[in-house]
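re: ur question from yesterday

yeah so i grabbed the chain u mentioned. its 150 aa long if i counted rite. heres the sequnce exactly as i have it in my notes:
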Amino acid sequence: MDAKDRNSFKNNLGHYVSRTYTNKVSNLEFVLVPASPPININVLTISSTKVLIKWNPVPEKLRRGILKGYVVNYVRMQPGFIAERQVLSTSENSLELKGLSKFTAYGVTMAAFTSKGEGISWNGTFVTNEDSKEVFSVYIYQVLLFMRLN
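ran it thru and got these structure tokens back, copy pasting raw so excuse formatting
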């Protein structure tokens, strides 16, 4: 590598090192953690105990190495509960969380990772629904109560 190359610098050992961040990782390039979480993250309710998390990959220019996968952590937002952790391959762009408690708030974080570790996390919250039967019965009760009062 030429000393005049503007895309390189001399490290403390006197070697010239590239400043570029590409998906073609060589021994002269940095591999760092991703500079962005996955994008367009959506949490969709499937049922009172299941949600689907969907996302698009980290933009290529922010990957800073080869993505190895995604990490999703979620926890019931009440004292004493331990976070669950899911590790996914890069070929996946969704995750179904099952066995959740009904009508409960959860915190969720998501990050992409390279061989150097996890990048910047996305943080969000979601609340699971009540069963549709329960919601429907509450609605019927309210209608009957309204009709009785009028």
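noticed a couple things. The CA atoms of residues 34 and 119 lie 4 Å apart. also The two ends are 86 Å apart (CA to CA).
anyway ttyl
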